[in-house]
Specification:
The protein contains seven helices and 13 strands. The protein is an alpha+beta fold. Strands 1, 2, 3, 6, 7, 8, 10 and 11 form an eight-stranded antiparallel beta sheet that branches. The N and C termini lie far apart (about 80 Å). About 10% of the residues have low confidence.
């Protein structure tokens, strides 16, 4: 058998595999800024999976997990790697309830795919971003969230998530990425492939440890107003008007100062590279300096 024939056979095999495999998707909800679907793989017949679905997860637990997800962004113009939240608060508010509901409705062959659009937190100007991924429970108490991309720049034509076209890249086979999730909490870790290599955008959470983290979390300190009797009333036993004392919290501002410093440095680079005018530079610089007490 000559080489040409062998190549034709191999090509035909892969083309056949591609045409016989596709995803059957059922929309759960589709809005301007997000879309959530149940999906299952079809290879002539529905491909059997081993998801622990349906699965009931507490909304607070999922919101906590989504809020804790941090990723390292590839180095930009300033050659610095930045840590950024995967989801903005508004994304968590609208996605988490739908994902909880979808996990409770999915069967053992279905996983949940989602896409979320947002206005990214750029250093100076807002830009349109999109995040796509899947979520499923692989074994009791093991919640998986894997991403195709995180806060990727949207194309000008991508004006609504309702018209979103899902990535054709297999989410669970991505082994390299410009962005990598940072396992910054004790209850979650990156998925490890059989080769021993960690998946850069696939995180697995231990839900039991997540619940423990929530129950033992330190509550934030807030202003507390309390009544303290005057000194004279304590000594004499007389009734007097209570004195109201407000305990002020001290909020560290080093994080804000570092962020402003980075923005000023980036702004200066833009001016030096003649990407903005001196007027734009001065305007933005003054806005940033005004935020420093």
């Amino acid at each position: 058998m000559n080489r040409t024939v062998i190549l034709l056979i191999i090509t035909a095999f892969f083309l056949s595999a591609c045409t016989n495999t596709n995803w059957v998707r059922t929309n759960v909800d589709k809005q301007r800024d997000f879309i959530v679907t149940l999906e299952q793989q079809e290879e002539g017949v529905i491909a059997r999976q081993q998801y622990e679905h349906p699965y009931e997860i507490d909304l607070v637990n999922l919101e906590k997990l989504m809020g804790d997800l941090i990723y390292i962004k590839k180095a930009g113009m300033m050659n610095k790697k930045k840590q950024n939240p995967v989801f903005q608060a508004v994304e968590i508010d609208r996605l988490a309830p739908l994902l909880v509901d979808s996990l409770a409705k999915a069967d053992a062959n279905q996983r949940i795919r989602f896409a979320s659009f947002n206005l990214g937190n750029a250093l100076l100007f807002s830009d349109s971003r999109k995040t796509e991924g899947v979520i499923f429970v692989s074994s009791p108490g093991r919640l998986n969230i894997a991403f195709n991309y995180i806060n990727s720049t949207r194309q000008p034509s991508e004006t609504s998530a309702s018209d979103h076209i899902y990535s054709n890249v297999n989410t669970l086979q991505i082994q390299t990425s410009d962005n990598t999730i940072l396992p910054s909490v004790p209850y979650a870790e990156l998925h490890e492939f059989e080769s021993g290599k960690q998946a850069p955008m696939w995180v697995v959470a231990d839900l039991e440890r997540l619940e423990e983290a929530i129950s033992t979390a330190t509550l934030p300190i807030v202003k507390v107003t309390k009544e303290v009797p005057p000194v004279d009333s304590v000594k004499t036993g007389t009734i007097a008007t209570p004195v109201m004392i407000t305990e002020q919290t001290h909020v560290p501002d080093n994080l804000l100062e570092e962020e402003i410093k980075d923005k000023l440095m980036f702004l200066k680079e833009l001016l030096n590279d003649e990407l903005i005018t001196e007027k734009d530079y001065n305007t933005k610089k003054n806005e940033l300096l005004d935020k420093i007490d």
